[in-house]
Design goal:
By secondary structure, the chain is of the alpha/beta class. It is 37% helix and 19% strand. 46% of the residues are buried.
Length: 388
């Protein structure tokens, strides 16, 4: 059996995969088993923030793997302490809970918000507002929190306690606020929902209304965090710091890592026995995360992200087949005039370009280290498909 046949024989078919077997990569380029080259505009859905196999990252991960690959959280490790310090300082938060994925980080935030409210107000104040078109994960709690009906099927009963409000609709949001609400969870740019930007006025209103009622704000930055929008956290673009911010994807440069960052108001809510994660804060993942934070938190690095983002948009705006561009930084959504995003993604793969889709849009989440030649080469392939 070849690789794809073996995969299909033994792996559960829960993904619609493209017929590409990746073999190796460096930076924003990778090769398949036959060594055909691809330019990567997806970075593993925003995970490979430093691209494929960054040398400093690979060295740090390898050295840690040879020293200590896992340690129970009953004990301490220097590498987890160092990563926590660097991450909290870069994100300007007081404490962090480590886990393995974005869904787990959101689970932690949900549990923390409900316990915070229970400790302070007792039962009956446990509902959480999320936004329509949102996406918060695939676990039972996070899929219940997700504000898209397409995900609310098959797995009945879904968890209660989540109420949806329309993004960028202040009146609708305010109408959902009552004395049963303990928190609001939002994405500053809704990635899986179609690369939809929240508006500054709406974000301002959410924070103000929640502050007045002691309702916590949870920022789901699983996709927007770690330099993706040109700031270390996307909330900085709105001059906002949520009570909790969840991150994952790009934080460890390609290794499983999630984190729930906590402000002073909630950092002591979880106590021993209330939440845990066997692999959370894994030493090898932390070693990779240290390299990512050191690089991405650098102001020059973030300035480069913004410059590349502007260059992307400038080139894309010249294409007559593109109707509109959404997103922020190197999180880019493209609405096409007369071609389907899925068809274009398939044709791009054939020509050596890896892109993503989100609803009816093309979506780009390139490695933050992508260079201008790779941007040009990738966009040239896209334009050839769209205008060819």
């Amino acid at each position: 059996m070849n690789t794809i046949e073996k995969f299909d024989r033994y792996v559960v078919h829960s993904y619609n995969r493209y017929p590409l077997v990746m073999d190796n990569g460096c930076g924003a380029e990778c090769h398949d088993e036959n060594q055909k080259k691809y330019i990567d505009f997806g970075s593993g859905i925003g995970v490979n923030s430093l691209g494929f196999c960054d040398a400093q990252w690979a060295d740090a991960v390898s050295e840690q793997a040879k020293k200590l690959q896992h340690c129970s959280n009953y004990y301490y490790t220097a590498v987890q302490a160092e990563f926590a310090e660097k991450l909290c300082n870069a994100a300007k938060y007081e404490k962090v809970f480590f886990c393995n994925s974005g869904a787990e980080a959101n689970e932690c935030a949900i549990k923390t918000a409900r316990k915070y409210s229970f400790d302070k107000y007792g039962k009956g104040r446990s509902n959480i507002i999320t936004l329509t078109s949102s996406f918060h994960g695939r676990t039972m709690a996070t899929v219940s929190a997700t504000g898209q009906e397409v995900f609310h099927n098959y797995f009945f009963p879904f968890l209660e306690g989540f109420i949806n409000a329309e993004p960028n609709n202040i009146d609708d949001f305010e109408s959902k606020l009552d004395d049963t609400i303990c928190a609001v969870m939002l994405e500053y740019v809704q990635g899986e929902g179609g690369v939809i930007n929240l508006e500054q006025d709406f974000v301002d209103a959410v924070y103000q209304l929640c502050h007045e009622r002691d309702i916590l704000v949870i920022a789901d930055e699983v996709q927007t965090g770690i330099g993706r929008t040109g700031k270390f956290l996307a909330g900085e673009n709105f001059d906002k710091k949520a009570d909790m911010t969840t991150i994952a994807k790009g934080i460890a440069g390609g290794l499983p890592m999630g984190a729930c960052l906590m402000s002073e108001s909630v950092m002591n809510t979880l106590v021993p026995g209330t939440h845990a994660s066997t692999f959370g804060g894994n030493p090898v993942a932390c070693a990779g995360g240290i390299v990512v934070v050191d690089k991405v938190s650098n102001e020059r690095f973030l300035a480069d992200v913004n410059e590349k983002a502007a260059y992307f948009r400038k080139r894309l705006e010249k294409c007559s087949k593109i109707e509109s561009i959404s997103g922020m930084g190197l999180m880019i959504g493209i609405t096409l005039k007369d071609m389907s995003a899925s068809d274009v993604a398939g044709k791009a793969l054939d020509k050596g370009l890896l892109v993503l889709t989100a609803k009816d849009k093309l979506r780009f989440l390139p490695p933050l280290v992508i260079d201008y030649k790779e941007i040009d080469d990738g966009i040239d392939i896209l334009i050839e498909i769209l205008e060819g």
